[in-house]
Amino acid sequence: MTATNEKPATKPVVLTCAQPTGKLHLGNYLGAVINWGRMQDDYECFFGIVDQHAITIPYTPADLRRNTYSCLAQYVACGLDPSKSHLFAQSHVIGHTELAWILGCICPLGQLERMTQFKDKSRKQESVGAGLLYYPVLMAADILLYNATVVPVGEDQKQHLELARDLAEKFNRTYSPTFNVPEAFYGRAGTRIMSLQSPDSKMSKSDPNQNGTLYLIDPPEVLRKKILSAVTDSGSEVRAGDDKPGVSNLLNILSAVTDRPIADLENEFSGKGYGDFKKTVADAVIARLDPVRQRYEELVNDTAALDQIFKSGADAAQKAAYRTLSKVYRKTGFVERPR
Ligand code: AMP
């Protein structure tokens, strides 16, 4: 076959969604965003900033708008590349809520009521909106709308991905084969980053002690101060182990930001104290994050550039979304919209 007769190879589709929650921390970066960036050459990647999910709990509209721009700027600064991937806002694409409605009509209510995240989040609210219960159906629609084959997820989203798989299978059985049944992608093991102040808990933006959380856009002097005051363990040996959660976490961070194995780092610091070690961790984290913060600062106030990225992402996402939606509407029995 000549080259001109060859169909261009289509890449498998990856869908990743993240709420516009404000500042990303080092755990988000090393545990998630870096992995997403690595997929861009081998997959057709849709990165959705899911603003419609963000309104399922109490929020402030002005913050949501600011955080949506800020998140886009942070993702681009981290290496998600609008010339390779589709970065879009969920509310810019017609189809997410439409497909969610149809999937909701085949979704058993009990399955939604049993979702751990719904139970956790609703316990914390005085009044629980129906949107919070419906959230996993909207997430299933986000995934199925693009016929994603791979979905990078954290542990906390495992149950929601299971629901998306169940709904895809149920729709396929009820109507006719339509959706891929998506697979989870868990990324590289060992990139669970813990709080610098309480290394038994995950690094998190909701940590009451914010000195335990390193944000990508923290200025270098703030990163340094937080790392130098990280809790360490008794003894003075720099080695990883269950009895040394603080030092293990810092070794894990140093290993991830320098791409060096932990055993090498243990050798390098053998006989040296915690002071030297923490200084090296601080220098390495700052060196890794400085270009990210600088790129973020250039971008975040350039609303025109961010709008352009949103527009090209939404254009591509909308094309794919309409393709799925029209197929689904036809199978569901809706009369075709008169032209
Ligand atoms: P969140 O905003 O907490 O839902 O996190 C978004 C993504 O970042 C999830 O997919 C998690 O897998 C990842 N993530 C969050 N916190 C950490 C952490 N401390 N260590 C590693 N990965 C994390």
Helix content: 40-55%
User: How far is the first residue's CA from the last residue's CA?
Assistant: 40 Å
Q: Major beta sheet, specifics? A: 3 strands, parallel
Order of helices and strands: EHEHHEHHHHEHEHHHHH
Number of helices: 13
Proportion of beta-strand residues: 5-15%
CATH topology of the largest domain: Rossmann fold
Q: Which superfamily, in CATH terms, is the homologous superfamily of the largest domain?
A: HUPs
Reading side by side through the largest sheet, how are the strands ordered? 1-2-3
Q: Enumerate the distinct ligands.
A: adenosine monophosphate
Radius of gyration: 22 Å
Domain count: the total is: 2
Rounded mean pLDDT is 93
CATH architecture of the largest domain: 3-Layer(aba) Sandwich
Low-confidence stretches: none
Task: Please supply descriptive tags for the structure shown above.
single chain; 339 residues; mainly alpha; Rossmann fold; Tyrosyl-Transfer RNA Synthetase; 2 domains; 3-stranded parallel sheet; two-stranded parallel ribbon; 13 helices; binds adenosine monophosphate
Structure description:
The chain is mainly alpha-helical and 339 residues long. It has 2 domains: 2-190 and 302-332, HUPs (Rossmann fold, 3-Layer(aba) Sandwich), CATH 3.40.50.620; 210-297, Tyrosyl-Transfer RNA Synthetase. Helix content is 52%, strand content 6%. It contains 13 helices and 5 strands. It has helices at 26-38, 51-54, 61-77, 96-104, 109-113, 116-123, 130-145, 158-174, 220-228, 245-258, 262-268, 274-300, 303-332; strands at residues 13-18, 44-49, 86-89, 150-152, 183-185. The strands form 2 sheets. A 3-stranded parallel β-sheet has the order 1-2-3, with helices on both faces. The protein has a two-stranded parallel sheet with strand order 4-5. α3 packs across α12, α4 packs across α7 (130-145) and α10 (245-258) packs across α12. The longest helix is centred in the last third of the chain and has 30 residues, at 303-332. It is elongated and about 75 Å long. It starts with 12 loop residues before the first strand and ends in a 7-residue tail after the last helix. Bound molecules: adenosine monophosphate. Residues 21, 27-28, 31-32, 154, 191-193, 202-203 line the site of adenosine monophosphate.
